[in-house]
Amino acid sequence: RITRPRSSSSRTTTSSIFHVLKWAKGAGNGTSPTVSAKPGTGNTATLSSITYAAANNTRSSPWIDYANDTAYVGADNGRVYKFTGVFKGTPTLAGAPWPVLIKNNRRLTSPVFDRLTNNIFVGDASGGLYQYNVVTQALNRLDVSTPQQINANIIDTPLVDPFNGTVFATSSNDGTSA
Question: Which residue in 67, 61, 53, 166 sits closest to 119, CA to CA?
């Protein structure tokens, strides 16, 4: 789970926090949606909270790679972050080459990781669709709309069809009109 920062007149900085709540079997670990577990209170549920960016995260939800126990999430600073040990270990913010700079200070969509090609696909607020290869570290951009135009943003998560080698991204600007 990701918390998105709340505005506060007394707070001048913002940050993004990645939360992982791990449930455990046994007494005190919640019996229903109305009687849920509270981490550390008579049970073995745990909550990990990791501040990962000194920037807001307004559009990016985490992509969970269950097979590799990792998660990827973007932020408004134009970077994609990686977490390891999400469910089977201790959630940890990955080091170099992470975070990956996609486009400086661009609001990013949720990333999508394709395990067949080792590519992460993510859109940004200027209408760019990016492909980042986690093995070769190659970064490519495709303009889905005319950058710097009204409504050029890619707001929604790209859709990836790995079996047909297709990625879909939408923008309300086609380069000629909205």
Answer: 166
Are 106 and 125 a contacting pair, CB within 8 Å? yes
Q: Report CA 128 to chain centroid distance, whole Å.
A: 16
Closest CA to 57 of 72, 70, 74, 81: 74
pLDDT tens digits for 99-158?
999 999 999 999 999 999 999 999 998 889 999 999 999 999 998 877 666 777 888 999
Note the pTM of the prediction, 2 decimals: 0.83
Q: Exposure of 129 by Cβ count < 10 A (0-12 exposed, 13-18 middle, 19+ buried)?
A: buried
Task: Enumerate the β-bridge partners of residue 129.
Answer: 123, 142
Is the dihedral angle over the CA atoms 36, 38, 44, 48 positive or is it negative?
Answer: positive
Name the phi and psi angles at 84, rounded to 5.
-115, 165
Residue 144 Cα distances to 61, 110, 158, angstroms? 21, 16, 11
- 112 is written with which tokens? 């999508």
Closest CA to 174 of 145, 147, 151: 145
Question: What are the backbone dihedrals phi and psi of residue 130, each rounded to the nearest 5 degrees, phi first?
Answer: -115, 145
